[in-house]
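Researcher: Good morning. I'm working through a list of sequences from a screen, and I'd like to move beyond sequence-only analysis. For each chain I'm collecting a predicted structure so we can compare shapes side by side. This is the next one on the list. No need for commentary yet; just the structure.
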Amino acid sequence: MHTLPLLKLPERSRPSVTVTWIFTFCLSVGLTFVGPPSTLFATTVAYSVPSGLFGTSTDTLGFAFTVKSSELTSNQVFKITDLGAYDVNGDNFQGAVEVGVYRAYDGALMASVSLPASTSESLESGFRYASITEVALALDTEYRIVRAVTDSQDGNHFYDNLISSPTSHATFHNVIDPGIGYITSGSSGSLGFPTVGESNFRYYTANFKFEIETVPEPSSLVLGSLGLVGLAGVGFFRARKRQTCV
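Model: Good morning. Structure tokens for this chain:
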């Protein structure tokens, strides 16, 4: 009786244990440390005005401010999300009210919004807001926020006298450093870059909401690349495994 020799099937091609371990390590490390940008905290109001001196003016009024780098890390981005104007009596605006944020060194308009009369926007601590396309602001750079009104009844506002009462009545978020007031006289209803600084006063006519977004640092991007290498390696060897089994 003759026995047929056993056929020896070809051994599957497979990566070595070392290579498998390297790809697994790259995949786990990369996916652990890298994620999409995340918001540090929910949308926040720049300041509130519980008290202060009361005034009225149809001039374009506002104040300067900067975003303090000392309060942020290198991978955090400050973004304005909403602009608002003060509604002193809480009875809606009598005419259209415009709000704008300008960059001080070149007068560039960074963001603006027009709040119509009888707007449906809810009242939040005296201000009515409208959302805008998010705008990132540079740190330690002066900006000026102002509002323009078309009806004299909308010109009511709070302000601080920075000389006789140097401690501000407004409460600012710790990332915001407020500056002096700015005015453009005779500009009723016309939004424009304010050039006249008033070192004695700060006008609380306009406000904004912001959020701080955390983005991956360069080192995290490197780890992300390792994760992609790990994914590519696993896919490659799985494909080879399927081919040798056919």
